[in-house]
Amino acid sequence: MRSKVNKANREKKYSVAPYNFVNLPERSVEKYKTHKDLPPHNDFRGRDQKRLLSGYIRYTLKAETPIIVAKGTNKGDSEKRKAKFFTNPDDKYAIQASSIRGMVRTNAQILSFSDIVGEKDDEKGYINSYIEDSRFLYRDVAGNTSLGDKYKNMLGIDLNKMIAKKLKVGYMIKSGDKFRIQPAKELKEGMPYFRVVEEDFKKIGGHNVPGIKFLDDKNYKPYRAQISFNLAEDGEVTKIAEVGKAKYNGYILSGGFISGKRCHYVVPPMDDELDSANSLDQDDLNESIRLYKQDMLATQKAYIEDGVFKVYKEYEFYALPEKNEKKPVFYIKDSTKDSSIIHFGFIPYLRLSYEKSVLDGVCDKYKNTKGISYADGIFGFTNKSYQIKNRESINISYKSRLSFEDAVVTKGGRVDKECIIDVILAKPKPTSYNLYLKQDKDAGKKELHIYDGDFEIRGFKQYWLKNYIDKPHLEPGKVENMKTTLYPLEKNTEFEGKIYFNNLDEEELGLLIWALKLEGNCYQNIGLAKPYGFGRVKVKDIELKIEDLDKKYNTFSFDYYKEGDIDKYINIYKKNFSNEYLRGTPIGDIELIKDFMYIKSKVIKFKASNNYRYMELYEFEDKKVLPEIYHFRKSIKYPLNKDKPKSEDKINKSRKRKRSRRNGREPDTAMALAFKEAERNSRNNKR
């Protein structure tokens, strides 16, 4: 299957993305009130003495597009990451059981309104949450947005002198395993550091100091260098020299290159006379360092190897100091809130942390549940906390009642050579608040919700299904360390797998099957590179086998399975759930379920690809709102489908009608179908 290059056509009124979100329900549903209500693992009768069901589900996954479920991304001789398909111990291509399990569990959580946050531990936070409770960092220097205003106010940016007056400057030092920040001297009131334009920098001695990098050098990289310098009365740097050859010793530095950047920054010397009361120690910095590392991972400047945090070589400028090393640092203490935080960075325009974390954007009715959800009851859980009367809380774990096998290839299984392509396997970017948070439809830049104040997250992230492979446009020589070469298997490859279940009630079995099958017109997507169209699969040939306990224990037969009706159990679940939790409203009529089934059934064609792609970097600057699935489903002009001029749309519709008439077919619309039915009835009456 040949990949296609999607040329970006900049939208003017809304954002586009290869994904969208299924809303969280207003409240979560509890299947079991307490752990004591959970079915036993070693008894075929539940707590209500009704017989439980055990058996297995056999199914086939047919790849409708090339598919890549990798065994890892290993670097070859060229140092480029390679993603090749997973193989089992028998050296057969297979989809790992963990991937199938994750796919089915997410679907089950959505279809059962299961709580994916879990209870809060006062010390450790939401330890059982399936949404990471991150607190993001941000930087918005020039943005004319609500966040940009907040950023400029926090730093106290002086637009005349172009420095951040509220910043403090110092040196981060690592002694043993602990960090501290020692302030720098304040050489000029209201100027914690000094800005030097490159043209002036060269005139005052910059060329003569080792270690300095100039921005107009094509090989420029972020740098810091020890220098000495002189100051004029107004704070202007008048001389740059080697250490000891001018009045003050300090550092000069500059971060990553961006177009139009012209400045370097001079940091005064450390103030050794200040006592420890004026410095910041490890206890002050613990949370800030945790957030900084988290941000380095999220922005792909760092990685974890064997449990150790490591920074990529090209981003060493931003690394924390090594043992006995000191680095100039810029920081600000936000003590206006109950929990004060130290914001720090290694350039003046540092990244600040939001006041709130992701899970502050989930409503209390959904996340503050005390019982056990359908998904947790079926898939199991660990360390749920329960308060016992007149006693301290206890932690409870419950083993899964499901066992997944790898889905092994049974048909096809050849590498699709036309789809061996390079992609960047980007991680989710929830820092893009205009995409990941619910926004008012017509919100301008100044009205957008951010991770402060009242905000609401969008919900479960789901990728649009495509009938093409979207080959990303990657500039030669750029971001080479981030590229991964994919070696997918061909379209029409088939895999067969099994799910064993133990002691489920009829409802739970119905939910499990529905989470695997979905509706008849739906697809699943699995594996890597889903945003580009890889991994769309159809679940088919589902067989349900249920243990016949009378035959199993009362005869010598080893064939004690009986055929089960999958639709019967799905309907039992739907009916019971609707009656118990939705006041009789069919679950399929709930908007979030409609949205979910829509995004799992809508297959995007290449001609509409401009609405379902990653945006270019310059497009993110517009901070446009991402339409919800609902708007696509209802064909609400958000505006959607505006790629072609109106007149051209009319011409194409007219041509389509003419072609339909020539081919003896009417357009497939409700009106046309009604006319067809009337014609058939008329013919029958004449007979």
Rg, rounded, reads: 30 Å
Shape: elongated
* Extended strand count: 35
Count of discrete alpha- or pi-helical segments spanning 4 or more residues: 15
Outline:
The protein contains 15 helices and 35 strands.
Describe this structure in words.
Helix content is 22%, strand content 25%. It is of the alpha+beta class and 687 residues long. Among the domains are: 3-130 and 365-414 and 462-475 and 490-633, no CATH class; 651-686. Helix 1 crosses helix 8 (506-517) and helix 8 (506-517) packs across helix 10. 32% of the residues are buried. Mean pLDDT is 84; it is low at 74-78 and 639-687.
Sequence-ordered SSE layout with sheet pairings:
Elements lengths: L2 E3 L13 E4 L30 E11 L6 E6 L5 E5 L8 E2 L1 H15 L25 E2 L7 H10 L1 E2 L4 E2 L3 E8 L2 E6 L10 E4 H6 L19 E9 L5 E5 L6 E7 L8 E5 L14 H17 L3 E4 L2 E4 L14 E9 L6 E5 L6 E2 L10 H4 L6 H6 L1 E6 L7 E5 L3 E3 L2 E5 L10 E3 L8 H4 L23 E4 L1 E2 L2 E3 L11 E5 L6 E11 L1 H12 L6 E2 L10 E12 L1 H6 L6 E4 L1 H16 L9 H9 L3 E2 L12 H4 L8 H5 L12 H17 L7 H17 L1
Parallel strand pairs: 1-29, 5-30, 28-35
Antiparallel strand pairs: 2-27, 3-31, 3-33, 4-5, 6-25, 7-21, 8-9, 10-11, 10-19, 12-16, 13-14, 13-15, 15-16, 17-18, 19-20, 22-23, 24-31, 25-31, 26-30, 32-33, 33-34
Helix pairs in contact: 1-8, 8-10
